[in-house]
Amino acid sequence: MSSVPFDQNLPLVRRLEAVGFRAWPATSVQYDGSWQIRLTGGHPSKRLNCIVALDPSDCRDIGLRLEKAARKFEAHGRPILVRETPLTPPPLLDLMKGEGWERFEEVVTMTCDLGAIELPGDTLDHLPSHDVGRYVDADLLVHGSDPALKPALAEVVSGIKPPTGLFVIEEPESGPVAVALCVQDNDLAGIMSLAVRADRRQRGLGLEILTAALRWARMRGARTAWLQVVAGNEAALALYAKLGLVEAYRYAYWRKGADA
């Protein structure tokens, strides 16, 4: 698979990457030049445990810097991951390809003008909660995640500094069926962790909770919304396109192959 193209709006990419870091904060963030090394011992999320290069021209001593970073990942009990964005130096990609690293999980970052899109309905159907514990319980249930991750996920959510709306749709008998987290960072609003429980999909719940989160953000003065979705999730991509979201850029992960 070819690498992410470099003919994109790099200032926009830099800004969305920065708000993305604040919207999903890692426990430990260290810098090696412009490389950000993100590690979170208690949570396995790839975004919380990866190297992200923030300057395409920062390509000195790549091999040595990767080895140094790998030791930090090993100390945290994590495999080394590199997150490729349009800001990644081409020589870093060339080195990983040459050493047999594997590229996987391409993700599409999408944006929309909140003032231009039409949101279904005209009221705030679901008000956000500020109860982190309740939200985390619902998130783990809806995603089908290991309940043992509750303390780590609660730490991540509690660590988000910008104003955050925690959205949960519940049914009286079956409990939480959809969740979303909306982080308003000045004029940008990020939709994180949106999910519908597996047995309640194809019923419009994704659109319902996304609309509630976007309307909340717009009422608070956000002008642009952004979210990220795995490139192979055609149903979600169709939903987001229907609402008016368009692709801004893509990112992907690299891991050491069996022979690397």
Describe the structure.
With 260 residues, this protein is α+β, with helices and mostly antiparallel strands. The chain folds into 2 domains: 10-107 and 251-255; 115-222, Gcn5-related N-acetyltransferase (GNAT) (Aminopeptidase), CATH 3.40.630.30. Helices cover 32% and strands 29% of the residues. The protein has 7 helices and 10 strands. The chain has helices at 10-23, 62-75, 90-98, 132-143, 150-158, 205-219, 234-243; strands spanning 28-32, 35-39, 50-53, 81-84, 102-113, 164-171, 175-185, 188-196, 224-230, 246-255. Strands 1-2-3-4-10-5-9-8-7-6 form a 10-stranded mixed sheet, sandwiched between helices. α4 crosses α5. The longest helix is centred in the C-terminal third of the chain and has 15 residues, at 205-219. The chain is globular and about 55 Å long. Residues 1-6 have low confidence and may be disordered.
Q: What is the CATH superfamily of the largest domain?
A: Gcn5-related N-acetyltransferase (GNAT)
CATH topology term of the largest domain: Aminopeptidase
Structural class assignment? alpha+beta
What is the domain total for the residues? 2
**Level of helix content?**
25-40%
CATH architecture descriptor of the largest domain: 3-Layer(aba) Sandwich
Overall mean confidence score, pLDDT: 92
**Tally of strands:** 10
Strand content: 25-35%
Main CATH class of the largest domain: Alpha Beta
Order of helices and strands: HEEEHEHEHHEEEHEHE
Total helices: the number is 7
- Low-confidence region ranges: 1-6
The major sheet is characterized as: 10 strands, mixed
Estimated radius of gyration: 19 Å
Largest beta sheet: strand ordering: 1-2-3-4-10-5-9-8-7-6
Q: Write down the overall geometry.
A: globular
How far apart are the first and last residues' alpha carbons, in Å? Answer: 18 Å
InterPro entries: Acyl_CoA_acyltransferase, Bact_Acetyltransf, GNAT_dom, Rv0428c-like_C
GO molecular function: acyltransferase activity, transferring groups other than amino-acyl groups
Protein name: GNAT family N-acetyltransferase
Organism: Rhizobium terricola
